[in-house]
Design a protein that fits this description.
Distance between the termini: 40 Å
CATH class of the largest domain: Alpha Beta
Number of helices: 11
Helix content: 25-40%
Mean pLDDT: 90
CATH architecture of the largest domain: 3-Layer(aba) Sandwich
């Protein structure tokens, strides 16, 4: 990765200087955010409805002229990056690891598409630095600082997304949370944020209008494109009749976890749906 470059403090985005503890160094691939950006974050263990919402939110925000910032993790983060790319927009991944070791590794195809579409990777970690668990929480302040507003889609009370929300509060920047069922523990963090004064987000318009922007009417569904090999294999294994996960595993030869991840990604693109008895392709 010869294109990884180190940015000195005076070259860092002015957005980062608002942090109480701004990074003294930063490594980047691709571009840095410019223009209005929204951070979209949430749990890695998101349910299908939440990932679909995150995907649509990012897609519609891109249509309104925003870039999307997130952390590249499974669940809400990946759905947000996917939504931005599906709309032809730019998105930025703030990684907890050195850029030479993108994390999570199974999102490498997604991360490469981020670069191909004009976005970028950002990390505070030096190329030879050994990763530590606290790096995951430390990078969350950078996600919030690179964005003009932060949206928490689905998050339990104890989660990385909540630390990103706290960073947005410290920066005095708009913080949104998506309302959800009060009995859903995966969204207990969102409920707490709303109690504490976060703005409710029921769609991109809630965010866009605060910045004087409009969300264009939804166009025709985009074709199935830019699928990674595993998503393509799973999509090809689906038909008009619901198939259980174990049958999709048999048809594709992929492991259960990889099949489930691919199904969530396909559902976020409105290419697959879960029904009684399993999963089927959406015509």
């Amino acid at each position: 990765m010869d294109d990884i470059r180190r940015l000195e403090p005076d070259a860092l985005s002015a957005r980062l200087s608002d942090l109480a503890d701004p990074p003294t160094r930063l490594w980047a691939r691709g571009s840095l955010p410019s223009g209005p950006c929204v951070a979209i974050v949430g749990t890695r263990r998101a349910d299908l409805a939440a990932t679909s919402f995150a995907h649509a939110l990012a897609r519609d925000l891109v249509a309104a002229g925003f870039g999307v910032v997130s952390g590249g993790a499974d669940g809400i983060d990946a759905a947000a990056h996917e939504g931005a790319l599906a709309a032809g927009g730019r998105t930025w991944v703030v990684m907890p690891t050195p850029l030479a070791r993108p994390y999570p590794a199974h999102h490498r195809f997604l991360f490469d598409r981020v670069l191909e579409q004009g976005g970028g990777w950002v990390s505070e970690r030096a190329p030879d630095e050994v990763s530590a668990s606290w790096h995951f929480l430390s990078r969350n302040r950078i996600i919030a600082a690179l964005a003009d507003a932060t949206v928490v889609v689905q998050a339990p009370l104890k989660s990385g997304a909540m630390s990103t929300a706290r960073a947005a509060i410290d920066l005095a920047r708009p913080l949104y949370a998506v309302p959800a069922s009060p009995w859903d523990p995966k969204s207990a963090g969102c409920a707490r944020l709303l109690e504490q004064g976060a703005l409710p987000c029921t769609g991109a318009r809630d965010v866009a209008e605060r910045f004087g922007r409009a969300v264009p009417p939804a166009g025709a569904p985009r074709p199935a494109a830019l699928l990674d090999p595993e998503q393509r294999a799973v999509l090809e294994a689906l038909g008009a009749t619901p198939a259980p996960v174990h049958e999709i595993v048999r048809r594709t030869g992929l492991g259960v976890v990889r099949v489930r991840v691919a199904l969530v990604r396909l559902a976020a693109r409105d290419l697959a749906d879960q029904r009684d008895g399993g999963w089927l392709a959406v015509a």
